[in-house]
# Entry
Amino acid sequence: MEGKINSITLKPVGVVKRQGEAVRIEVFPEFASALKGIAGFSHLWVIYWFHDNDRPESRATLQVHPRRDPANPLTGVFACRAPERPNPLGLTACRLIKVEGTELEVEGLDARDGSPVLDIKPYIPPGDALPEAVTPEWVKRLSPAK
Amino acid sequence: MEGKINSITLKPVGVVKRQGEAVRIEVFPEFASALKGIAGFSHLWVIYWFHDNDRPESRATLQVHPRRDPANPLTGVFACRAPERPNPLGLTACRLIKVEGTELEVEGLDARDGSPVLDIKPYIPPGDALPEAVTPEWVKRLSPAK
# Structure
């Protein structure tokens, strides 16, 4: 076993592009072959970078009122999906509408325009689908439900 | 808008510890307050680092036979969950059994002992729970279902 790992380096594999309601993931050409077979899945996980929150003060934030709403209880960032977190990784399940070359048209991806995409994974039930998962009351009051 | 982001740096926020069947996430003490409220969730997403695959040849691998089984079709790494990928990020939904200080006892986390944990997020239906998601035939033949 090697010693403790202190730092990990990632490189973007694509970028999020928003045009009105349409959202596309532009995968960089050098990763084109990593998309082989992706059209067989209806939904994907996208891990992206909250690039607007890649700042020391945002990465040092450990508790927030979710949605910046004081009506939501002060919550640890590992207990909510806020972009302020030590490693500002975004995670969203989205529907894959169309694959055109290295462009993926998707629905339901809440990443901002220009967000670097770090990984794309297929959504695979039943391991990923846990409709029975329990959440606190404040989550249930959110709208839309996330 | 700034220029293209070429490199992103993460730091581990904890580590996976396996002892027999028991699996724990040891969150580093400096992130203790980020756990506030986590016990209200039954399930978590864990984003971890496939540290055994943080090697240039593994990160350059863009297609694999899933599970290293030639019976599975040659598949792009963005269309499967293989640890070989440009950014070796692991993503697993797991059940939160117990919180003791900064230690989370979990069930269903398939990360190896010693894997750096990069982020922890609550599992929130219905956005995360898509039991209707469609997968190709080769995925349906896998056992367990992932």
User: Anything to note?
Assistant: The longest strand of chain A covers residues 89-100. Chain A touches chain B through 72 residues (CB under 8 Å).
